[in-house]
Amino acid sequence: MAIITFREALRQALDEEMAREAGVVIMGEEVAQYDGAYKVTKGLLEKYGEDRVLDTPITELGFTGLAVGAAFSGMRPVVEWMTFQFGLLAIDQLIHNAVKYRSMSGGQFKCPLVVRGPNGPAEYLAGQHSQSFASYFVHVPGFKVVAPCTPYDAKGLLKASIRDDNPVIFLESEMSYGHKGEVPDEEYLIEIGKADVKRAGEHVTLVSFSKPVLMCLAAAEELAKEGIEAEVVDLRSLVPLDRDSVYSSVRKTNRAVVVDEAWPKASVGSWIQAEIMKDCFDDLDAPVELVASEDVPMPYNHTLELQVQPTVAKIVAAAKRALYRA
Amino acid sequence: MRPIKGYDKEFLHGLLKEMLLIRRFEEKAGQMYGLKKIGGFCHLYNGQEAVCSGAAAAMHKGVDRLLTGYRDHGHAIALGLDPKAIMAELYGKATGVSKGKGGSMHMFDYDKGMWGGNGIVGGQIPLATGAAFAQKQQKTGGATIVFFGDGAIHQGAFHEAMNLAAIWRLPVVFVCENNQYGMGTSVGRASSVSDLYIKGQAYNIPSKIVDGMDVIAVLEEVKAALDTARKDFQPAFLEIKTYRYKGHSMSDPAKYRTKEETESFLQQDPILLLKSRMEEAKLITEEQYKELDKQLKEAVMQTVEFAEASPEPALDEMYTDIYA
Fold first, then answer.
1. What ipTM, to 2 d.p.?
2. Largest CB tally within 10 Å, which of A53, A258, B60, B286?
3. DSSP character for A97?
């Protein structure tokens, strides 16, 4: 197995799916001649030409809506948003068109579309470039929402997302593109809607998705030093949500900490926290903890911005609270 | 008025019949709305019939696609959707064109090219541009026509889509149905320019004004635009000047305009203008017109009977048609 970066895993997935089906096209700002703002689409223009790798003007609403119309026509567009923060300009096209055309037409339309790009906090980016919008999409029925944290998961899930006949929101992270991991040489896909236990443990369950899973793994290392074995459940997909995997872990450990880098109100984290409390009530020995970002706009100052977000120390502390060892 | 010479009698009768059917259908829809048989928003097309009928007559059926806003009953009829299923959709019945899940604003028939029926002002314009993108990539030989109102033209969606269509040379015809009012706001109050077609020049897209009360003018201009789009991947923008007789929706008494203004447009009614030209050419008599009108009123009555007799969707239908 080769060890490659998250960025390269995404690039391989795009390359393989473009080779597989002519209807797969990539569009977004700087995806072609510039190789992508984060170099995810590197080399694809030379290989597939300008009809299939398209630089767009800076018009998120326009090109996202255009991609939705192309998806209705049987193509499989992959839209890259330079960041999900810019995607807010296009969210109407996704919510009202990509999702609702199928329902409003009584099932006549399909929308095989992937919208991908970095979501969530990065570093030194302040209030308009550093927030997680997962819950915006999770909230709306009709999307599938995927948020991997390893190169292996990213590649297998992106390939599955491109082949899916529904609009898939594919959440990445600026901080993860250089993250390395093992990826098999042979082709594989990962089914959307399946969580993955990234570390087994018996004392407390840490549930997360995207970049904060890596923090959970680091927290589990810290906890192990104190004899606490944490199980880390990486959701990988938020819609559909793999409740079975989460609940079977919680029923084993009887304690759970949910970690989400978004704000805490009406978030994916608070939703999963509530689901576990409701469905695993009799199995819990402590309230489910939520480690989220502070409920504030992201400050530029590095000390402040780090303290706004979940940290390994905060996850460790929450796990200990759940174990009444704080 | 453009001459009708050169069009055969059967074709002109078809156009007249379709426009009159739309008029009678809309009148009945308004009536049924008043009786609370139809709920929600209901935007009637009375006065604008020449736009959808002229345009649909220029389309290559089964190849070209049409998208529009929420004033969409006329476009659905013009594309050949069954008026019974359209009325059933207004009633929210299982036999509706969208299985009762769309209603007045969301008429769909994928295969007939009726791609909605959109409730977000201007939201359909990028979608249509994407449909045209696919037509070009997939080499289908078709083009897409997208309708929107004078209110929508100020949305970013219009400007972003026009620019994309121009730089990527997409086979899309943008049609602004300028009925003079965006809800209750006149064009003069909402727009920095009085002729909206000039906005096309900003994107280097050939643009012109079309008389929307003359179905032949609409037909000829849309045909020219669609033909060029299909052949040369050259987008076009048409500002079709028209007028809606009714308020913005059923709840709007249209107090923002004068009776005289509405009267003046009734004098250039698109149906009567075609009829009078056909009478002059001795292609129809007053008697024949009255007989046609009688038949269409009966046909529209049958759409109501069909909708009334149709079943409600089953409750578990709420869970279907969400994921593919």
1. 0.96
2. A258
3. I
